[in-house]
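Long-time lurker, first post. I've been practising inverse folding by hand and with some scripts of my own, and I keep getting stuck on stretches where the structure tokens seem ambiguous. Below is the full token string for one chain I'm working on. Before anyone asks, I'm not after the true native sequence, just a reasonable design that respects the backbone. If someone could post their per-position residues I'd love to compare against what I wrote down in my notebook.
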């Protein structure tokens, strides 16, 4: 009994030491994200946004957030603009949630050309609002991020071109739930995954439909109503029968 009493007193003394709570808190943070996808996995490299702000990748952009991340370069003549336009549609569907409980990051793979000023012009071109950042940084750091996010393919980088993996990644760092998606995905489907699935369906999607906005239906005349409900159906059946009789061989 005395041994348990001493163990309890020792535990209380350890908790009262000034450094222990901070260590416990740091350890909890390192384990966040499903015990694997936390501070011990993601590099906390410095990036600069199109707004000119210097940000840490994990501490400022990722920790405890639901994110959409893709890699682009502004001089790309075809795929990157299309990809960015699709993300612009995603931003419009999610509305005010972007910047509040969903965050979007487009990171340049050509930092030598894509300065914050160049990225700011690109962001304006595609109507990027609050919560959607275009980022640049050190080239080696960006390659490291692409590798950690499984969006780096060395076999297409060997010719020093800017060809790159076109997939984007969506994730919830707190829960450790991550998934690769195609930027050409239906934006409504993607919005449902980002705004619903990644939040464990805890956040209701805004319903913009309203009967007040429904168009007023015109009244049909008796003849038009008869044609729509009777004649049109018969005509369709006759056409189908006629088409089948021309295709099927006769006995």
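-- Answer (accepted) --
I ran through it position by position. Result:
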């Amino acid at each position: 009994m005395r041994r348990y009493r001493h163990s309890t007193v020792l535990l209380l003394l350890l908790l009262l030491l000034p450094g222990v709570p901070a260590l416990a808190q740091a350890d909890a943070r390192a384990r966040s994200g499903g015990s694997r996808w936390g501070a011990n996995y993601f590099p906390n490299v410095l990036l600069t946004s199109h707004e000119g702000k210097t940000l840490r990748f994990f501490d400022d952009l990722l920790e405890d957030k639901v994110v959409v991340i893709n890699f682009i370069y502004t001089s790309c003549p075809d795929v990157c603009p299309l990809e960015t336009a699709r993300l612009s549609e995603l931003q419009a569907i999610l509305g005010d949630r972007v910047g509040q409980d969903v965050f979007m990051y487009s990171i340049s793979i050509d930092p030598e050309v894509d300065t914050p000023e160049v990225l700011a012009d690109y962001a304006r071109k595609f109507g990027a609002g609050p919560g959607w950042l275009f980022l640049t940084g050190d080239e080696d750091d960006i390659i490291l991020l692409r590798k950690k996010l499984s969006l780096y393919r060395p076999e297409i980088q060997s010719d020093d071109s800017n060809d790159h993996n076109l997939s984007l990644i969506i994730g919830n760092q707190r829960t450790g739930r991550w998934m690769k998606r195609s930027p050409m995905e239906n934006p409504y489907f993607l919005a449902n995954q980002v705004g619903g699935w990644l939040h464990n369906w805890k956040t209701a999607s805004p319903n913009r439909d309203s009967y007040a906005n429904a168009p007023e239906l015109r009244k049909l005349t008796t003849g038009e109503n008869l044609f729509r409900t009777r004649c049109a159906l018969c005509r369709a059946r006759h056409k189908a029968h006629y088409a089948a009789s021309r295709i099927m061989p006769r006995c």
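A couple of notes from the structure itself: The chain is about 40% helix and 15% strand. The longest helix spans residues 222-247. Happy to go over any region you disagree with.
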